[in-house]
Amino acid sequence: MATTHPHEVAPLSSADTVELFKQYVIGNYTRYPVNLVRGEGSLVWDAEGNRYLDFFPGWGCNLLGHCPEKIVRAVQEQVATLIHVPNTWHMDVQGRWAQMLSQRSFGGKAFFCNSGTEANEAAIKLARLHAGKGRYKIITFTGGFHGRTFGSLSATAQPKYHEGLGPMVAGFLYAPHGDLAAASSLVDDETCAIMIEPIQGEGGVKIPSKEFLEGLRKLCDERGLLLIFDEVQTGCGRTGQWFGYQHFGVEPDLITLAKSLCGGIAGGALLAKNEIAPALRPGMHAATFGGNPIAARAGIAAIEMIEEEGLLAQAVQLGHLFERRMQDLQAKCDLVREVRVAGVMVGVELSVEGAQVVKSCLERKLLVNCTQGNVIRLLPAMNLPEEQAEEGCDILCDVIQSLPRA
Ligand SMILES: *Cc1c(COP(=O)(O)O)cnc(C)c1O
Asked: Is residue 44 one of the residues assigned to a domain?
């Protein structure tokens, strides 16, 4: 009998794959009609052999590019040694991972889970438990994005994501992003926390003023609230610092992480200051796969790779490159309203809809994202080679400049 190995089977064509999805996969995503089969660095290939330059690898999860060798090796080794054991045991890899995160943030403790929304659920629970009886309200901000499970969704102050799903979890109050006075006026005796992305990602790469975040810190200190930073998108080196908060010199009490935390492997974490962490007592919260050996090994390898290869500095350099290219574009193209850059987190706000830009870039084999209707969002890998950055910027500039005028 002939044996076939899965990797020897030719991939299905893109068209056949689309058919398979139509029949068997729930259609809750808008997907490009392309079957991606392989990735390396900032390049991916489809079943037809087309090569794409990826400026949005893994929706922000592949901060180190596709299949980074160090992560691949760590995972291969771990998967052959110990795949999963429950959190009723100790695992040195989980402990060492927590230590590494602690040493690069504010020296607290970690709870591990598998995604961003889960990390935020843990933060919400911890904030309520820490505050004690009767204090349950959490203030969040318009345009924020915290995830899709009900706690995180209720924290997400964007009506479009709530449509048809109500009622939301009680106790979330929304202030306009950037409005310190409004946030302050929402605080009462039942408030336990303020939760915010230090830089809004899905909201359009919105960078708040240092004064605003400082003001939130002060408000939290005065009223005995926890300050929660959702760093699911900004964390783990994305902005050229380990964590987004380090840009502003404003230290939160809780940090949530996921997306690029494990170099493309699924993983999430909540980091809590030492004096707050004990409120998450045994039995109060759990995640079966949280901090599993594979995620832990990948998480450790991601941190090591970033440090060994000087990638934080490289993210800053790449940020300058994107800023220069997009500002040059803005100078000669009146469709570009604003350019917002923090390391390898780039937002180009247009005065027209951005969907056509994504489509035209795809036709020219460049992958970009559009959020909030008119913000072209790039979350490139921090090890994107400069030539590829320039190559992609050439395409993007060309596409935006040839957009039809309204
Ligand atoms: C993506 C994202 C989330 C949700 O993460 P999932 O892993 O999809 O649950 C939460 N917060 C922010 C800031 C995000 O960018």
From this structure: yes
